[in-house]
Amino acid sequence: MAVTIWWEDMQPGTVRELGTTTVTKEEIQEFAAKYDPQPFHLDEEAGRRSMFGALAASGWQTCGLAMRLTVDNLLRHTDSKGSPGLESLKWLKPVYPGDVLSLRHTIVESRPLRKRADTGMVRARWEMFNQHGDKVMEMEGYGFFGRREPATAEELARIDAQRAGA
Questions:
Q1: Stretch 138-161: mean pLDDT, rounded?
Q2: Cα separation values, 153 from 39, 74, 120, 160, Å
Q3: Nearest Cα residue to 81 out of 110, 119, 114
Q4: CA dihedral over 45, 49, 50, 53, signed as positive or negative
Q5: Do residues 17 and 103 touch, judged by C-beta distance below 8 A?
Q6: Which run of H or of E encompasses 66?
Q7: What gap in Å lies between CA 26 and CA 35, rounded to an integer?
Q8: Average pLDDT for residues 65-92, to the nearest whole number?
Q9: Does pLDDT of 166 surpass 70?
Q10: What is the pTM of this model?
């Protein structure tokens, strides 16, 4: 697929809605059986007895759903070069069978890379909401993206000067 979103298009304040996904009981139980086999993720009765009051999805599954929406609705349109990781991750409310989750992606910071003139880095916030508008997850992290045009010598000199003054 052709690149239509470059690092230069990811300026601070840019907000993208990255679609929706519906969580099923079967998906919750399948994920839990394989990756997070805690009783409240596997069994409806155990979920009712838990602090969640019902079968609840693993937070790690919620992260995976967010990643899928991000790839399908953003990264496949970019020259994504990976990520050095997350700054923060919070599971704020449980996710239940039947929940319809939507994902919002906001660019918080964007900067060129000194050692890779063809790449820029962004810090972004992902917010996942259920169908009631409740925020169920928030994470913040970094991504590397290809630039439309490599950094010029003048831009790299400005980066060096900013770092020297910091």
A1: 91
A2: 57, 30, 15, 11
A3: 119
A4: positive
A5: yes
A6: helix 59-73
A7: 14
A8: 98
A9: no
A10: 0.92
